[in-house]
Write a structure and sequence with these properties.
Blueprint: H1 9-24, H2 31-44, H3 51-66, E1 70-74, H4 76-93, E2 96-99, H5 106-118, E3 132-134, E4 144-146, E5 155-157, H6 163-171, E6 175-179, H7 186-190, E7 193-195, H8 199-213, H9 218-226, H10 230-238
Parallel strand pairs: 1-2, 1-5, 5-6, 6-7
Antiparallel strand pairs: 3-4
The structure holds adenosine-5'-triphosphate.
Adenosine-5'-triphosphate is lined by residues 34-35, 37-38, 41, 81, 160, 162-163, 179-182, 185-187, 198-199.
Length: 245
Amino acid sequence: MIPKSHPRYESLLLRDKMVKASKEGYLADSAMIAHGRGEAFDYLIGEKTTYPAKRAMYVAVAALLLSNNPVISVNGNATALACDEIIELAKSVDAKIEINLFYRTDDRVKIITKLYEDHGFKDILGTLDDDIEYLNDIKNNRASASKTGIYSADTILIPLEDGDRAEILKKSGKNIITIDLNPLSRTSKMSDVSIMDNIVRAIPFMTKIAEDLKTQEKSVLIELVNDFDNEENLKESLEQIKLKE
Ligand code: ATP
């Protein structure tokens, strides 16, 4: 048991979740390394949601609400850290959830499918018996997508995504939103909306934003999206990283 008074309490809880997920067998071998990279950036922003991240979240939620077929793409790390929260957000913005694993194996897909089903989300896509297509005709796992999900989606939320896959999604003409603690990652730079925040803080905050934005006129949402400059917001995000005490 980690005592609540421990200065790294929240961060250690997340490590515990990652270790548990690893033991359950649904994380890729490199998952811990990706988590560690995220942790380092989180440390440098004081483990708090910054103003530019909040601004990006409003735009992201507006874009999801304006979309015809929004999809939340999930991998092992995102599931380990925020399965219930992802389900809540999906319900709130009426988005599909699709499993997309960079290192896809049948076993991992099976475990993650069961996890979402056990947590109350029955219509998960990207499962072993789903109808899979290939984006831009690239016949490998990096380009695979569910026919009714990412393949036909207009907006995709890709938290903690690998740069190669983000590039394929971007090239296929989708509107891409990422949650990535590293504002310098290829995924952050390539996305239309990049939220530099920890997924465990960002997703529940986005659900709250959705409840607010759902009561607004469509024109307000359109204005939010149109007024946003991701490059400028990423610059401001980078300025939040503190290398001095
Ligand atoms: P890219 O290929 O996009 O340049 P990368 O090689 O760092 O970046 P991966 O390691 O595949 O990409 O993806 C993990 C990304 O997710 C990293 O940028 C990491 O900072 C970020 N990340 C890890 N844990 C979290 C978290 N809990 N919340 C948000 N982002 C996270």
